Amino acid sequence: MTRPLGKLQLQLLFGLASPSMLMIVGDKVSGSLVTRGLLAPKFPESPDAWQRITPDGMRALADAYEAGLLDQFMKKFPREDAKA
User: Fold this and answer.
1) What is the DSSP letter of 24?
2) 23: buried, middle or exposed (CB in 10 Å: 19+, 13-18, 0-12)?
3) How many angstroms separate the CA atoms of 74 and 76, rounded?
4) Could you tell me if 41 and 51 are in contact, meaning their C-beta atoms sit under 8 angstroms apart?
5) Which residues make beta-bridge pairs with 40?
6) DSSP summary character for residue 37
């Protein structure tokens, strides 16, 4: 069984939610997502750069959204602390 995604992994997937978004330089967190097949390099000759979300990454993000795990990354509108 696969371990659940951590907060930093979810946050990175959330930031790359559009297939047109690319992460220019990968890091340890993105590397763990590449290993899981949730991110992939756009250019195979540069596996540590230009990473993008995969269809499996989109599915994992959708599952996390349905489970309420992405609320922590979304800003509420209107702000609750705004004066009326």
Assistant:
1) E
2) buried
3) 6
4) yes
5) 52
6) T
Unique residue bearing structure tokens 């959708």? 62
DSSP state for residue 71 in the 8-state scheme: G
Q: Where are the alpha helices (DSSP H) in 1-84?
A: 7-15, 28-36, 55-66
Tell me which residue has tokens 């997937």.
13
Q: How many CB atoms lie within 10 A of CB 40?
A: 17
Assess contact for 46 and 40: CB atoms under 8 A: no
Question: Can you read off the two tokens belonging to residue 38?
Answer: 């949730």
Contact of 52 with 22, CB cutoff 8 Å: yes
Quote the pTM value.
Answer: 0.83
Average of per-residue pLDDT values in the chain: 90
Nearest to 52 by CA among 29, 34, 70: 34
- Write the pLDDT tens digit of every residue in 31-43: 999 999 999 999 9
Instruction: Output phi, psi for 53, to 5 deg.
Output: -75, 145
In this structure, which amino acid lies at residue 14? F
